[in-house]
Amino acid sequence: MSLGARLLNRLAWFYVGFVLVNFASLLWLFISSYLTIYTDLPLPYFMLYIPNNIAIVALVTLALILGLYTYMGVTLVRGGFSRGYVPVFFTASVVVGLAYC
Fold this sequence. Notes:
The chain is mostly helical. The chain has one domain (3-99). Helix content is 77%, strand content 0%. It has three helices and no strands. It has helices at residues 3-37, 51-78, 85-99. Helix 1 (3-37) runs antiparallel to helix 2 (51-78) and helix 2 packs antiparallel against helix 3 (85-99). It starts with a helix and ends with a helix.
């Protein structure tokens, strides 16, 4: 398997993982909000749609997305593509921006 084919294989798995992580997090938010707000179903505390839990889910989702962007950037840079610096710089700027909040 050549370098280009391996790089494309890794990028394809990155996009699959990115889509699945985003879909799973949005599905979690939708299901937990629907069950908590529109039904009388009592949920355990950790499943309640309250601001504290939403913030935790948002931070976990942000960490996963930034991790995937970093992985994509490092994969591109190691494959010889200088455009891989864009997702790495994006991740670094988001982390620096969050540090100043």
